[in-house]
Design a protein that fits this description.
Shape of chain A: elongated
Largest sheet of chain A: none
Strand content of chain A: under 5%
Number of strands of chain A: 0
Radius of gyration of chain A: 19 Å
Number of helices of chain A: 11
Helix content of chain A: 55-70%
Oligomer: homodimer
Distance between the termini of chain A: 48 Å
Chain lengths: 205, 205
């Protein structure tokens, strides 16, 4: 695991061979593997192959590492709503834009989103992140309601369950998608949208 | 949490106020909350409100508790293939039967399936369970291939991705379905099948 640090590009800050991004990227792997609560700064240092004080050179505490790692997922998720396509077109078009964009973030920031999805809310930092995640989720559930009202989405499934099924499908990508697999990120995005909106049943189309 | 033991029905074995099912049901909650690796027999005893020796009265080791708990999920999942409906009808019908039956097990054995889905494979018992889970999953992926061949399932999504999307959607139920919620288990089963096969898009049907 230390290899990825050794190979990492020129550092942003001070210490040769390390930068905050590398520390963050390995920290999130260790958090995901052992759980945030069970990961001590000592264990992190061991995985990074550096001393605890070298970590403290980059971030003041484990909580700050967590906050920075969660931002890697939350900032791009929150940015989706700022795009013009998030506010133009039918509710179904906007919903699809949100879902496609969410899938892109999930695929690009897989480890960070995994961390976000597994949060337990034991600390203030975790609860803040969960609140931000809920705000992001609410935009999608509002769009589901709107799309059902405009008649583009079937309304025999209640909006709450519809939203849960959509997120269930999308969020599962972080568990199984592999960038070096047979299917590209673009294909997965297309396939997931197709299943959710058109279904897997072959209609002779 | 001890209340559920105090209120539990007549014991199957020896010790008054406890039976193996109660111990199992609380053990699986604690495993899911803290992770199997991080749960000591001491922590279990604390959550059960009984002594460690009282746990050992029911099961010889933490590993045995895990094995018993995983059987609560795996045995009914494996039983699906034994049903007549698993071997009669078109591939699509059999696939739907498998998926519906899986959803039922997920909903009825939610905690146990959660434990199964979160396994890391660090011990022999975990690896055995994962192997059994893979065997169950393979039956579904074989049916997906068959249903694409018979032309009932769209084949513009490769069978592997199709299977992943199906399991992603279904498995997510253990994370959000609540038996005391607004939607019944039967409705969730129906809704999930509808989304996966017919899609959420309203076709004017």
């Amino acid at each position: 695991m230390t290899a990825s640090i050794a190979n990492s590009s020129p550092t942003k800050r001070g210490r040769p061979g390390y930068d905050q991004d590398s520390v963050l990227s390995i920290a999130v792997e260790v958090f995901n593997k052992h759980g945030y609560d069970a990961t001590s700064m000592g264990k992190l240092a061991e995985n990074l192959g550096i001393s605890k004080s070298a970590i403290y050179h980059h971030v003041p505490s484990k909580g700050d590492l967590l906050r920075l790692a969660l931002d890697e997922a939350l900032v791009p998720l929150e940015a989706i709503a700022e795009d013009e396509r998030a506010v133009t077109g039918t509710a179904e078009e906007r919903l699809k834009f949100f879902l496609r964009s969410t899938i892109r973030v999930l695929v690009k920031r897989q480890q960070y989103v995994t961390l976000l999805l597994r949060l337990r809310g034991n600390t203030e930092i975790e609860r803040d992140a969960l609140e931000r995640r809920r705000a992001v989720d609410r935009r999608v559930s509002d769009l589901v309601v709107e799309a059902q009202h405009e008649g583009s989405l079937r309304s025999d499934i209640d909006p709450r369950t519809t939203t849960r099924l959509l997120f269930g499908t999308i969020n599962s990508l972080v568990e199984w998608f592999r960038e070096d697999g047979n299917v590209t990120a673009e294909q997965v995005e297309e396939h997931a949208i197709t299943m959710m909106f058109d279904g897997l049943h072959h209609n002779g189309k």
